[in-house]
Amino acid sequence: MCDTLVALGNSTEDGSVIFGKNSDRSPNEAQVLRYFPRMEHPEGDVIRCTYIDVPQVPETYEVVLSSPYWIWGAEMGVNEYGVAVGNEAVWSKEPYRKTGLLGMDLLRLSLERADSARKALQVIVDLIERYGQGGSANKDFELLYHNSFIIADTREAWVLETADRFWVAEKVRDVRSISNGYTIRDRWDMASPGLVEHAIDMGWCDSRKDFDFARCYGDPQMDAITMCSERFARSMELLRENKGSINVEFMMGFLRDHGGGEWDPWSQTKATICMHAGPSVVSNTAGSYVGHLAPHGQVHWFASSSSPCLSLYIPVYVGGVGVPEELGRGNGVFSADSPWWIHEKMARTVHMKGYNQLVSLLKPELERLQKKFVEDAYKARERSLSLPADERRRVLREVTESCFKAAYERYKEWSEKASRVEVAGKPPEKYCEYWSLQSDAAKLDV
Ligand SMILES: [Zn+2]
Predict the structure, then answer these.
(1) Using CB atoms within 10 A of its CB, is residue 393 exposed (0-12), middle (13-18) or buried (19+)?
(2) Distance between Cα 371 and ligand 1 center (Å)
(3) Are strands 166-171 and 146-152 parallel, antiparallel or unpaired?
(4) Second label for 391, Cα 20 to 30 Å away, from 130, 254, 368, 420?
(5) Catalytic (active site) residue 49
(6) Strand locations in 107-174, DSSP E?
(7) Spatial separation of the C-alpha atoms in residues 84 and 182, rounded to whole Å
């Protein structure tokens, strides 16, 4: 499960587009950050995606991708042109295919091939129509779904919702979010040929007048299971309430949201935007991204870890700057050299000891450090604008590296602190059982 949000320039503090996504996955699936430079490819080259091969293009663009470790594609990412894409699992009445392109593969292909949001949309729909979407999105059991996307660039954004080979797209006017259900109803800007006619043929509606994409194509049972309506309503509420003043730190706050009011992972019954798995919530936020798509100096904020509320977003830049190689390490089992698992050990210790008590101890430092990262990242951006290319890359890479090191040193300290501190109360038995099973499977001792 996931949530993706965007605010256009008419709704943000500085007039630039701001994009955000939480990727919610199985609790033991490390999500890694990958960097690929701009590349040229020989004629006739074929690219092996997660399940199928597709012909390569002569040139692919520089991309930064947040990917479940075993998947070719990505849950979210950005390219050198400031095109940012996030996908969502959605369930329709159309058939699912056991093989094909995953939504995450489509996402990566679009970033590698498009220099604008509009072109990225076209890449995705062309690939869907040509190869079909399909294949399991889960490593341990078969999980088939269709996909929706928010596709943004430095000027505009699109919502694209697909049901097998059918699709519909809406140009974002100001603020918009998507979750794990369809949101486009009877108004759209582009659609696949035969979209309405197919719904009429299937008996889902009587005429164009009666057509509602979400109602006709959506699977209402899955909407209830994924609890997507509440999350969609909450993300739209946060965006609308803050319209006009949205900046990068607001977007980070939206992605750290637990619905407002009292919240405790031990007693939660519903999934929230910052998603914490447990006996009643199957997915866990595994990675988070805020894209500041400013036309003259983008800054991309990645928290390559679970629980954004316990994570620091690290600044990443495009233009040949790259990302720390360590962030690419991690799989389905604990490893002390994987940053994702280092953070995970801390996060699980906090959850088992008592989230609310521990967060009150750690939060002041987390907030102070995040503020410092933001200040350092934008100072470096300003300084770099007048520098020659090589020097620019060096200055920006230094900020990424120093924030990365500071964050992971802190996670290790917090892990120690959380394991030492005495806290009253114990998690409910079902909660303990759930996380013991998970941690045993990952060979993680917490
Ligand atoms: Zn949280």
Answers:
(1) middle
(2) 18
(3) unpaired
(4) 368
(5) no
(6) 146-152, 157-163, 166-171
(7) 20
Is the model's pLDDT at 225 over the cut of 90?
Answer: no
Pair of tokens at residue 34: 């990958």
Q: Does an H or E element contain 375, and which? A: helix 339-384
Whether 283 and 226 have beta carbons less than 8 Å apart is answered as: no
Q: What residues have CB less than 8 Å from 297, skipping those under 6 apart?
A: 381, 382, 384, 385
Averaged pLDDT for residues 359-379: 97
Convert 61-92 to b/e letters by CB count within 10 Å (16 or more is b).
bbbbbbbbbebbbbbbbbbbbbbbbbbbbbbb
Stretch (H or E) spanning 217: helix 213-217
Ligand 1 center to 231 CA (angstroms): 13
End-to-end CA distance of the chain: 26
Could you give the CA distance from residue 136 to residue 51 in angstroms, rounded to a whole number?
9
Radius of gyration of the chain from its Cα atoms, rounded to whole angstroms: 21
CB 98 within 8 A of CB 135: yes
Whose structure tokens read 């894209």? Answer: 291
User: Rounded to an integer, what distance in angstroms lies between the CA atom of residue 326 and that of residue 329?
Assistant: 6
* CATH tag for 2-329 (out of 3.30.70.260, 3.40.190.10, 3.60.60.10, 3.40.50.970): 3.60.60.10
CA of 276 to the centre of ligand 1 (A): 6
Within 10 angstroms of residue 143's Cβ, the number of other Cβ atoms is 13
Is a pLDDT exceeding 90 seen at residue 217?
A: yes
Instruction: Give the DSSP letter string of 303-318.
Output: E-SS-GGG---EEE--
Give distance in angstroms: CA of 355 to centre of ligand 1. 9
- Domain ranges in the chain are 2-329
In a 10 Å sphere around its CB, with 0-12 CB exposed, 13-18 middle and 19+ buried, how is residue 425 labelled?
A: exposed
Contact 334, 346 (CB under 8 A): no
Band of pLDDT at residue 46, cut at 50, 70 and 90: very high
Measured in Å, residue 153 CA sits from the centre of ligand 1 at: 27
Say if residue 290's pLDDT is above 90.
yes
CA of 220 to the centre of ligand 1 (A): 27
Residues 8 and 170: their CA atoms lie apart, in Å, by 14
Under the phi-then-psi rule, with left for phi > 0, alpha for psi from -120 to 50, and beta for the rest, what region is 58? alpha
Give the integer Cα–Cα distance in Å for 161 and 150.
9
Nearby residues of 411 by Cβ (< 8 Å), 6 or more positions away:
305, 342, 343, 346
pTM over 0.90? The answer is yes
